[in-house]
Design goal:
single chain, mainly beta, 14-stranded antiparallel sheet, two-stranded antiparallel ribbon, 1 helix, 2% helix
Length: 309
């Protein structure tokens, strides 16, 4: 169930609220304390509210703020493949955001700040469940905090330049890593996996002739860790990718608008990875770490045709 409301308190002040009531019910055949299996039920009822303010401080300036709560249930495998006392709890996120937008006819800049505070965030810590699969566990306190800047400027009718950058810090306050039953490591203020501290993009949109739009985008993603130990040997390197996109639109009497699209992705065939998995074990007294990485495509392309009636 979902309800959304907006109320203009004053001519320049708007208050908005989102309210979501969400129920999740699992019915599964899972492990019990006696190591046997039994049909079981597990239900979650979540209330996810959001409250915000938006204020027009001037003709071109708008400032806003919001606070929201979101809940997430464990996966079905977390429940069915673990004993009841080993099953993780649901996680809760409280998100606070503040920002401002300045908008002229051909210029836009937006600045935003966010603080995402987790309780019982679900993460991997190296443990495996009763059937050998990676196991999610709760970490009591973790957070994501950062700032975002977005800029767009119309230089003239032929050229528009834009870009955005996000700087963040993403931490788990206390984290325990399990390599095996005899090797357990504790960490403080460690980085959350798959959470780069820097993400940015720069974009140029060129309209050389009527109906044709050419977009060149350069995207940068900073280093990411494969697990929650901040170990550089278990990480994915930062990467930079350039994409080119062409859009051509025409209008006809029969079809109001016909659009052709062609995109050339990873123009310079950069070699990089976007996902992966790490696994460590002891061979005698030696620690062995294996990183299994998923390479992204090299130079690739896509085309498309859309008809608007």
């Amino acid at each position: 169930m979902y309800l959304k409301a907006n109320y203009r308190v004053l001519s320049r002040l708007n208050v908005f609220a989102d309210m979501q009531l969400r129920k999740v019910e699992y019915r599964y055949f899972g492990l019990m304390d006696n190591a046997g299996q039994k049909y079981q039920n597990q239900s979650y009822l979540f209330f996810n509210p959001k409250l915000g303010l938006s204020y027009d401080a001037g003709k071109h300036l708008n400032v806003y703020g919001s606070v929201a709560v979101a809940n997430k249930e464990p996966s079905g495998d977390d429940l069915s493949k673990n004993l009841p006392l080993q099953r993780p709890k649901d996680e809760r996120l409280t998100d606070l955001e503040l920002g401002a937008r300045y908008n002229l006819e051909r210029f836009f800049v937006g600045v935003g700040f966010y603080n995402m505070q987790y309780k019982n965030q679900l993460v991997l810590n190296g443990q495996i469940d009763n059937v050998g699969n990676p196991k999610h566990v709760n970490v009591a306190n973790s957070y994501r905090r950062g700032a975002e800047v977005e800029v767009s400027a119309g230089i003239n009718k032929y050229l528009t330049l834009g870009g955005n950058i996000t700087l963040s810090t993403n931490k788990i306050l206390n984290f325990t890593e399990y390599i095996d039953d005899d090797h357990i490591n504790n960490y403080k203020n460690t980085d959350i996996s798959f959470s780069p501290n820097l993400v940015s993009s720069v974009m140029a949109v060129v309209k050389p002739v009527k109906h044709l739009e050419v977009t060149l985008t350069n995207k940068y993603v900073g280093k990411q860790f494969l697990d929650n130990t901040s170990n550089n040997k278990r990480s994915m390197a930062a990467y930079n990718v350039v994409d080119l996109r062409l859009n051509y639109s025409i209008k006809t009497k029969i079809i109001p608008e016909i659009s052709f699209m062609f995109s050339l992705n990873n123009v310079f065939a950069a070699e990089y990875v976007t996902n992966g998995y790490t696994y460590s074990y002891y061979d005698g007294n030696d620690l062995v770490t294996q990183n299994l990485l998923s390479p992204a495509a090299l130079r690739n392309f896509m085309g498309g045709l859309s008809l608007k009636f």
